[in-house]
């Protein structure tokens, strides 16, 4: 049998700044890229929804289509399989001799278990593992993982104090040794969206997956539209495409390396201007690194009900409230607009995410892990460390936790959507409501309901809970748990 190097792609669907791919090509053997649709990642969860929803599955499918094209230019075929990863590697070993498996490290429990299963199936085959998801490799940091600072501010100051710079991003590798796939070994079709249950029509999908689309967005946002210049002023906007960078889907799925983003920020600063906005985008990349490091430090505790603090919060169980939240039918416009946007597009702004998560934990009082799982299912930019790190933080059981932090979702709508445009976009039944009624339709009397054609309980739901009473109740619960 012929000998091949195997590059195992997972959340790193690109050819630039991809050290495992570069190392495999340099090893001198023909290279095969492998991506596996693991049924475990597409299963139905006990909460009543899929672990990977249709929008994320569609984004992955498009990313793989783009990756296959880019790899072909390097003489690297992309093999797709739909089975347990250990079985997929065993299938390959029936057709060829595996010189080595090249991959990026994943730190989450499930991914590590999967990797152990593959290693067990391939005794004697070397695995070459590299870091590639963050700005800074862990071994370059001025502290060990067990000493990762307890707050983001402490982490940021440690990095900036020594003037730490990320390693330079790698260019795509040279072409690999040209070779055909072994006889009867098929590449396999890419049909990820179908695995999730229902395909997304192109007009429904907000973002196209793949490095080609990622690089276009990077160029357009920073240079063509010159939006980086005002990022700090616009980043809390919830409606417009260019309010924020929208790099997160591409970073989460590995279409774009964070080091490439960093280098483009540096290029912009040298060529145009260096200001608070250019720093703020770098600041957000640091947050991404920090959540990854906190995840490394605490491991499985990232997914515990009690989080990193060990607080025994009496989270509630209420299926009706959960469904209303997921469907955007809570009676609170900002929450409902955000949740409908998420369900329809697979995306939601950071400002909206903070509000819907705060409402979920500090008003509804539901188990934060269910909210995190729904985000995992729906978001095209799902990243395990950032998603669970943010939910831990919002739930009050993560790093940098304070006694009780909650958003007033009505005031937040007034502050960040003062004209109600975001609410009207996603809540068509409220489009005729002027300010201030669009922020608080619950306060309309019968006269206003008739005047604007919005009848509470019919056109738009009554609030499922009292905003202030529920917040007081959860605050008391937190205080009791903290004693």
Structure overview:
The structure is a single chain. The protein is an alpha/beta fold. It has 3 domains: 1-132, HUPs (Rossmann fold); 133-167 and 211-298, Serine Threonine Protein Phosphatase 5, Tetratricopeptide repeat (Alpha Horseshoe), CATH 1.25.40; 319-482, DNA Cyclobutane Dipyrimidine Photolyase, subunit A, domain 3 (Orthogonal Bundle), CATH 1.10.579.10. 46% of the residues lie in helices and 6% in strands. The chain has 20 helices and 5 strands. It has helices at 19-26, 54-72, 85-95, 109-121, 152-161, 192-195, 211-224, 231-234, 248-252, 258-271, 276-298, 319-327, 333-345, 350-363, 368-378, 384-395, 409-416, 421-426, 446-452, 467-482; strands at residues 3-9, 31-36, 78-81, 97-104, 127-130. Helix 2 (54-72) links the parallel strand 2 (31-36) and strand 3. The chain is globular, with a radius of gyration of 24 Å. It starts with a strand and ends with a helix.
Give the helix/strand layout.
Blueprint: E1 3-9, H1 19-26, E2 31-36, H2 54-72, E3 78-81, H3 85-95, E4 97-104, H4 109-121, E5 127-130, H5 152-161, H6 192-195, H7 211-224, H8 231-234, H9 248-252, H10 258-271, H11 276-298, H12 319-327, H13 333-345, H14 350-363, H15 368-378, H16 384-395, H17 409-416, H18 421-426, H19 446-452, H20 467-482
Parallel strand pairs: 1-2, 1-4, 2-3, 4-5
């Amino acid at each position: 049998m012929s000998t091949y190097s195997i590059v195992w792609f997972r959340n790193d669907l690109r050819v630039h700044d991809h050290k495992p791919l570069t190392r495999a090509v340099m090893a001198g053997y023909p290279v095969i890229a492998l991506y596996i649709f693991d049924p475990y990642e597409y299963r139905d969860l006990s909460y009543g929804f899929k672990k990977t929803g249709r929008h994320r599955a569609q984004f992955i499918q498009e990313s793989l289509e783009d990756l296959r094209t880019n790899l072909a230019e390097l003489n690297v075929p992309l093999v797709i399989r739909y089975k347990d990863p250990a079985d997929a590697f065993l299938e390959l070993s029936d057709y060829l001799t595996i010189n080595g498996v090249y991959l990026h490290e994943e730190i989450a429990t499930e991914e590590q278990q999967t990797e152990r299963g593959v290693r067990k199936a391939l005794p004697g085959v070397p695995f070459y593992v590299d870091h590639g998801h963050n700005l800074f490799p862990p071994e370059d940091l001025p502290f060990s993982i067990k000493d990762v600072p307890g707050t983001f501010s402490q982490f940021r100051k440690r990095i900036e104090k020594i003037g730490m710079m990320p390693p330079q991003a790698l260019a795509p590798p040279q072409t690999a040794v040209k070779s055909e796939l072994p006889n009867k070994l098929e590449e396999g079709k890419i049909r990820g969206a179908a695995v999730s249950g229902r395909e997304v029509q192109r007009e429904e999908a907000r973002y196209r997956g793949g490095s080609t689309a990622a690089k276009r967005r990077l160029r357009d946002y920073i240079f063509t539209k010159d939006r980086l210049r005002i990022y700090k002023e616009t980043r809390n906007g919830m409606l417009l495409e260019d309010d924020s960078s929208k790099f997160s889907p591409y970073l989460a799925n590995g279409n774009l390396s964070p080091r490439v983003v960093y280098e483009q920020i540096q290029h912009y600063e040298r060529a145009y201007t260096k200001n608070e906005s250019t720093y703020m985008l770098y600041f957000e990349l640091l947050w991404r690194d920090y959540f990854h490091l906190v995840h490394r430090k605490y491991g499985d505790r990232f997914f515990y009900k009690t989080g990193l603090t060990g607080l025994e919060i009496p989270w509630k169980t209420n299926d009706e409230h959960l469904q209303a939240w997921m469907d955007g039918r809570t009676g609170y416009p900002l929450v409902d607009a955000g949740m409908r946007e998420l369900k329809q597009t697979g995306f939601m702004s950071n400002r909206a995410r903070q509000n819907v998560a705060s409402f979920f934990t500090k008003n509804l009082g539901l188990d934060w892990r269910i909210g995190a799982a729904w985000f995992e299912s729906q978001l095209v930019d799902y990243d395990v460390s950032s998603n669970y790190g943010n939910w831990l933080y919002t739930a009050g059981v993560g790093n940098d936790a304070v006694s009780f932090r909650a958003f007033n979702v009505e005031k937040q709508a007034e502050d960040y959507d003062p004209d109600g445009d975001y609410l009207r976009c996603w809540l068509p039944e409220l489009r005729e409501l002027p300010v201030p009624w669009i922020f608080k339709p619950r306060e309309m009397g019968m006269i206003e309901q008739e005047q604007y054609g919005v009848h509470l309980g019919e056109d738009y739901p009554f609030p499922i809970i009292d905003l202030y009473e529920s917040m007081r109740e959860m605050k008391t619960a937190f205080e009791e748990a903290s004693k």
